[in-house]
């Protein structure tokens, strides 16, 4: 009896060994046969399995898809993190029309661990210390965009990133993919004209907000892209030069 008690005491005294998280099953998520055909068509240019592998998405994580749009990445991430994980598909209120509601309802029906969160772009209303992973796919430049036509308000990039920083758990990862602009010029003017952004602006903004730069991939770089063209120009649409950055919220 005393031996059993001694062994229990020794076990309690030993340091707790951390459990290493497993990579998310992104290849299987992308290969799912019930994904919409229009989403599957985008895979060749977006390379989601390779991008999410580089960014380090893991099983069981709570993820955030900012400016989710059609839910392209929310759906893939929801499948990849598995039932122990979750995804919040955040969409600014001005974009959440009937078509968006229908499209995102179909995503949540296919992937039950995805839920939609709608809020004004100027007040994202994200819960603090809640996410292990976040994705900003082709839309960080919108922090510098405003549109009366689309009812998209002028944002303060620092305040927007402050909300994201607060929402991430310590050690959490943020992946940023965006269309590359030629350095120079006023950022808001460049975004308004081309919907592109200088990667140096992205990095400076995130580091100023308290994130640490944690890596870059050339998976989506395209030296043949004409940076003087709008990303909606048929000559470059879907084939733009895109930067892939990984940032991390410090663990301490």
Characteristics of this structure?
252 residues, 34% helix, disordered N terminus, globular, alpha/beta, 10 helices, single chain, seven-stranded mixed sheet
Describe the structure.
With 252 residues, this protein is α/β, with parallel strands linked by helices. Helices cover 34% and strands 20% of the residues. It has ten helices and seven strands. It has helices spanning 2-13, 26-31, 37-40, 43-46, 48-55, 72-81, 98-110, 157-167, 187-194, 199-208; strands at residues 62-66, 86-92, 114-119, 131-137, 168-179, 212-217, 242-248. A seven-stranded mixed sheet has the order 3-2-1-4-5-7-6. Strand 2, helix 7 and strand 3 (114-119) form a beta-alpha-beta unit. It is globular and about 45 Å long. 38% of the residues are buried.
Outline type: globular
The largest β sheet comes out as: 7 strands, mixed
Helix and strand succession? HHHHHEHEHEEHEHHEE
Query: Poorly predicted ranges (pLDDT <50, ≥5 residues)?
Result: 1-19
N- to C-terminal distance: 43 Å
Global structural class: alpha/beta
- Our estimate of the beta-strand percent is 15-25%
| CA radius of gyration | 20 Å
Q: Helix proportion of residues, in percent?
A: 25-40%
